[in-house]
Design a protein that fits this description.
Blueprint (H helix, E strand, L loop, with lengths): L12 E5 L2 E5 L24 E4 L13 E3 L2 E4 L11 E4 L3 E6 L9 E3 L3 E2 L11 E6 L21 E6 L11 H11 L5 E7 L8 H12 L6 E3 L7 H4 L6 H11 L2 E5 L4 H13 L8 E4 L12 H4 L2 H12 L4 E4 L3 H8 L16 H4 L15 H7 L15 H22 L2
Parallel strand pairs: 11-12, 11-14, 12-13, 14-15, 15-16
Antiparallel strand pairs: 1-2, 3-4, 3-6, 5-10, 6-9, 7-8, 7-10
Helix pairs in contact: 4-5, 5-7, 8-11, 10-11
């Protein structure tokens, strides 16, 4: 259910639930929860898990607290307001929260009380599975093949990933690991690996990416422009550029730019020359190709300034849509633990070992390029400017990532 952000709610109410007090009010909506029993209990008074809706919309819009025993529970259709604003978990239990009846992976796994008011998960949770904490971890679900990705954002990722120490920034390894945890939320048309003007070993980069992430993202390809720039290839559409042209013209695609803008510029230039009516279908989301307050450099522009300048000019002229978020992703990485109060701890298992490839001084993985899709997961990009400017987009994107950061890292830990 999509409604006003929780921070706009003005009502204050309190619920006393067998010693558990939930408060919800102004700001992001907070719920203070008392300590839970120290041992598991199946009694009516001390159920393993309680869920409630109390983010402050006013009398009649909340549903009553629900006590959940072990097993699976469908929360859909409780009342008109179906939010899950808070979850309390008794010691010795865990709660697996799913954002849909058919979801095979939990969006969040809780072993302690959690306030969800104002988070991206608040409106989405529809099923909860309650288990004893000492129960065996269930095996990974069998992948479900769906005939269509209808309803999922269709994205094409341009990445300058190289092997660690191979010549380009390691943030793309982290961002691709992050995308792998969200792969089921997107229709990933392609991830073009080695999309850079830097002369790296593109075969090694592709092999590294394939070995690490192909089980979650099978649409990995080796870039056809590796080591070349826009001016040397202008007017052509080699390999992956030709595929990108076709995908753009088919419609419904968003290009996520994590690299020098060479491939995107070549595709747009070909469309401008040969199929100008399709320019209206060009949608790009790019991180930090324009400087931001406190972040003056723009690496991905400096590596191919001609490509970058061409695309920003096209956007400024209203011919294409280019959502530039500046250095919002990098600012989030720098501030996640300190200002955003995000628990950035991750186990060194599964995808966790790739999320840990590059870490900032406070331990936050450098998933700055991943901000391009994380914004889609934490509220979307409606209302962002698409003229290639970063002005209002930069602070807005940082605030959105900061608010949703806790849920993002909860998701990582549940989906490694």
């Amino acid at each position: 259910m999509n409604r006003r952000p929780h921070r706009l709610r003005r009502h204050r109410l309190s619920l006393t639930l067998a010693g558990v007090i939930a408060l919800a009010g102004t700001g992001a909506g907070t719920c203070a929860m008392a300590a839970q029993p120290t041992s598991p209990s199946n009694g009516a008074a001390d159920s393993p898990v309680r869920v409630f809706d109390a983010c402050g919309y006013g009398s009649g819009t909340q549903w009553a607290p629900r006590r959940l025993a072990e097993g699976a529970h469908d929360l859909a259709g409780t009342t008109a307001d179906r939010d899950v604003s808070g979850v309390t978990v008794a010691a010795g239990y865990r709660a697996l929260l799913f954002d849909g009846a058919a979801a095979t992976r939990p969006a969040l796994t809780l072993t302690a009380d959690r306030d969800l008011c104002g988070t991206p998960l608040n409106d989405r949770i529809r099923r909860i599975v309650v288990q004893r904490a000492d129960a065996p971890t269930p095996p990974p679900p069998t992948p479900v093949t769906t005939p269509s990705a209808a309803g999922k954002p269709k994205v094409w990722v341009l990445s300058d990933l190289s092997v660690p120490g191979g010549g380009t920034d390691k943030d793309d390894i982290v961002s691709l690991a992050a995308l792998s945890t969200y792969a089921s939320d997107f229709d990933i048309a392609k991830v073009s690996v080695g999309s850079t003007t830097v002369r790296i070993n593109c075969d090694a980069a592709y092999t590294y990416a394939h070995d690490a992430f192909a089980s979650r993202i099978p649409a990995l390809v080796r870039s056809s422009i590796c080591g070349k720039d826009y001016n040397s290839l202008k007017g052509t559409k080699p390999g992956t550029v030709s595929d990108l042209v076709g995908a753009i013209r088919a419609g419904g695609l968003t290009v996520l730019n994590w690299a020098p803008m060479t491939e995107t510029a070549l595709a747009v230039r070909w469309i401008e020359t040969h199929a100008p009516s399709d320019l209206a279908k060009v949608r790009i989301v790019t991180h930090w190709t324009i400087g931001s307050p406190g972040y003056s450099s723009s690496y991905n522009c400096s590596k191919d300034s001609a490509a970058c300048s061409y695309l920003h000019t096209m956007a400024a002229d209203g011919k294409i849509q280019l959502t530039e978020i500046g250095a919002a992703g990098q600012k989030f990485v720098d501030q996640a633990k300190r200002s955003c109060r995000v628990d950035n701890t991750l186990p060194n298992t599964g995808l966790g070992k790739y999320l840990r490839v590059k870490r900032t001084s406070d331990g936050t993985p450098d998933l700055s390029d991943g901000s391009t899709f994380l914004l889609m997961e934490t509220g979307g990009l409606a209302g962002y400017t698409t003229d290639g400017s970063a002005g209002s987009n930069f602070p807005r994107a940082y605030d959105q990532l900061c608010r949703g950061g806790a849920a993002v890292f909860d998701h990582f830990r549940a989906n490694l």
